[in-house]
């Protein structure tokens, strides 16, 4: 049974006149009669007594009207509530962020709450390795928005995965973390092809491979396969959540190399490790992400506010060495650094 048929029945039951019901519904009288006959055939009995002078409900029609009206009003009430939830910014917005990105989140949250006082925000950092590949954290519904390193794979795959990526906060060149004395330290810069000769730390074995590939490429641009450790970083830690220092310890112990950012050791000095810049990896882009199907007015409002803040605070230059990735929503205008600010990691 279609909703418009129920609406036609309720209109005739209210007006007790097919012509007035048709005007109320914005259709022809013949169309109303057709829908009522269809409904009576589906039920198996007449719902109206029709004469040349008047229309009245049968006893079965009265019964159907009572039940249909209650159900219709409940449905319309739910529809209105959902429409309000979709268009008004309120309720609770849960924001997770990459460790070290709190300095960027704090002013955004403060500005958001000042603009949308009816929306409460809960923000906290996400432990590793979930923060490195935040797909599961979003898909599980644990967070509404995650601010982390954006996926840099095929935009069509990102969209097919059900993710939306907002405007970039900052972009940071990549580098590989290696133990001191490693053969790669003899090079000024390295490429993905250079890394294909060594094992890289595997961030997760729980995320589906096609999703993991959005953050950790499976092969170099030349087609050479990149090798990742059989165990992921959580398994290497006995199933416990990890910290940045834990990842660096794994590198120092020779368990694998790790692709991070050029400023990692400025924030986390670690004796025995070196960083070698990458020349063909593109930059890492810190950006808000959310599940497209779960998008709400609050999520849209936060994303729009971060885009406004980026436009208002972006410097008039692009730093040398910063290059663009292939992340959807990222273009030349959106790539920037925040001067004299602490970059997130890892």
UniProtKB/TrEMBL annotation:
Keywords: DNA-binding, Transcription, Transcription regulation
SUPFAM superfamilies, per the entry: Periplasmic binding protein-like II (SSF53850), Winged helix' DNA-binding domain (SSF46785)
Protein name: LysR family transcriptional regulator
Similarity comment: Belongs to the LysR transcriptional regulatory family.
Keyword DNA-binding: yes
Polar residues compositional bias, start-end: 337-346
Tree of life domain: Bacteria
Every HTH lysR-type domain range: 1-58
Residue numbers spanned by region Disordered: 312-346
Organism of origin: Actinomadura fulvescens
Cross-referenced InterPro entries: LysR_HTH_N (IPR000847), LysR_subst-bd (IPR005119), WH-like_DNA-bd_sf (IPR036388), WH_DNA-bd_sf (IPR036390)
Keyword Glycosyltransferase: no
